[in-house]
Amino acid sequence: MRSIRLYLLLSLIATITLVNFVSLLHGYQSSMEQAQQLFDSRLQSMAKLIAAANHDQTERAPLPQQQTPYVFFQIWDHNKKLIIRSSNAPSLSLSVLTPGFHDANYESYRWRNFIFHDELSQRWIVTAERSDIRYSLAEQVVLKSISPIILGIPVAAFIIWWAISLGLRPLRNLTEQLKLKQANDLSPIIIEHTPTELIQVVQTTNALFSRLDDAFQREHQFSTDVAHELRTPVSVLKVHLHNLQTTFGDNNEELNLLRQGVNRMGHLIEQILALYRAAPDQAMSKFCTIDLYSLAQNSIATNYGLFEEKQQTIELTGEPSPMAGDQFALETLLHNLLSNSCKYTPVGGQIVISVESSTAGVNLTIEDSGVGIPSNQYVRVFERFYRLYDDQYNSETIGCGLGLAIVKHIVELHHAFIELGQSKFKSGLKVTINFPIEANQPW
Amino acid sequence: MQILLVEDDRPLAQGIKTSLAHEGFTVNHLTHGEQAINSLKIEAADMVILDLGLPDIDGNEVLKRVRKFNAELPILLLTARATLNDKVKGLDAGADDYLAKPFEMAELLARLRVFERRLSSTKHADLTIGDVSLDLVNLQVTVADKTLELSRREYMLLKALMENAGRIQTRDSLESKLYSWGEEVASNTIEVHIHHLRKKLPKEFIRTVRGVGYTIKVK
Fold this sequence. Notes:
The structure holds two protein chains of two kinds.
Chain A: H1 4-53, E1 71-76, E2 82-85, E3 100-106, E4 109-118, E5 123-130, H2 131-180, H3 196-248, H4 253-277, H5 280-283, E6 288-291, H6 292-302, H7 304-309, E7 313-318, E8 322-325, H8 327-344, E9 350-358, E10 361-368, H9 403-413, E11 417-422, E12 429-436
Chain B: E1 2-6, H1 10-22, E2 26-30, H2 33-42, E3 47-51, H3 59-69, E4 75-79, H4 84-92, E5 97-100, H5 105-123, E6 126-129, E7 132-135, E8 140-143, E9 146-148, H6 152-163, E10 169-170, H7 171-178, H8 189-200, E11 206-209, E12 213-216
Parallel strand pairs in B: 1-2, 1-3, 3-4, 4-5
Antiparallel strand pairs in B: 6-7, 7-8, 8-9, 10-12, 11-12
Helix pairs in contact in B: 2-3, 6-8
């Protein structure tokens, strides 16, 4: 059943047609019976009339004037000799001369005849009539009553269609409301005069929305709480570690290992929080117009310390490129890509970022002179907790294997495309992200 | 240099205190917002490190109330909330700087040194990085004891860069420091000023980060 409306319409029309057909059949039958009785009694009275009118004994020639070709009569004497007949009547008897009704064939028609024995004159009077007359009469009656019904079916179909539309209006209303709902809109559906059939649906849907809303609120609260609860203790560790290193010097092996562990933990917490915060239902609602170029400028300025430390040359090219996006998510994306480049590019290396705008959208490319990624790893690096060169437990390079997974997640959130390749330098990675213009219209 | 630290997490506060004391700062520690406001009313500190998540009142509230009676006091916000929105809110409420937890102690010290430079420049009236010295009273610049002739804008530009040494200043942020709102600024104005400044300053003193902005390295 594809459409309730079509289903109801077809089944109702079919029912109406069937009921009409049955009643027509019944009507045909009963009008046939009535016509039979009517015509039979006419034949009977005609016979009696003829008998009464022809009491003389003379034999006559067939009557020349004939009104109708459907009726004839014969008068036979007691010797079974034909004495009078109408002009269209046969000179033979159609059936055995016994009183009552008979059916016989004559001149390729079926005839109904009535044989009346006049006791007084000892004659047989035969009146006959073509049977098809009575059938055609009954048929005419039926046909006349059938035509309004046949004409009425399309009218009925139209009325039913309209009535169904009217009846389905609350359902359509519900569909419209659900269709227009934005991904982040979890407010209840309100339908005026909800019909009883839909009350449960609307109630259940609204209850679901409300539960979902609560869940999102809890999730958001959770990530905020976790952020606060975890960031402070990590700060405590870092500060005390700094103090210990001031006391024992930077060359203490144990303290350096401890520092790496603490940094890794801090990094992991930040990345997990970023992943949480970039959840689609929350991020999409926050889409606004953002200049990716100035965002890149700020991101480089914020992270400048990282590049400075490794004496790397960083350079930004391009022009202001406004696009629709989530600011926090894009900041996270830039931060992750920049810190990756910094991490995997040696001391004194080069990093080039470009933000360009075209009619097709905004292109972000980041190229570095680092170690790059072998092309057979291009897919795997986006997996969560996957780390290149199996350096998951190699703490020399801080990371948790979430950076590119988060980047991919944010790219998908913006309906954008990411591509990895060879940088223009001797070695190194080129990351290209294309934000198509039509996919990022603000909501 | 006296610092007021307002932080409710005692282990963290203890660590910061130790570290700052080692760097020669005197640190007073308070755990509540109201205490901090009252303390600052009685005795001003040189700088304040203020945590946003305090047990009694929100750090932003503390900030607003302190700004009512002390507009000059350098205040650095410390917070576990690190979205841009929080940052903008904090800076709008009157914070001078903002540091998100978990932070590196070295970063906190660097930020405090910027405060210190600004403070000492108002007190001692000069700001020195390497050979370059800025006399903030007479608005004069000397390189290796030789006085330079600078225009007002060039001077302001150099001051903005030196006060934020170690950090990138984007072209936009420099423009907003040099020109008031509504003033017409040609697209290459900052470049022209930098070009003139470089001719007068030691080589590589002002460094360009292409496409982003300019920076002066802390020697």
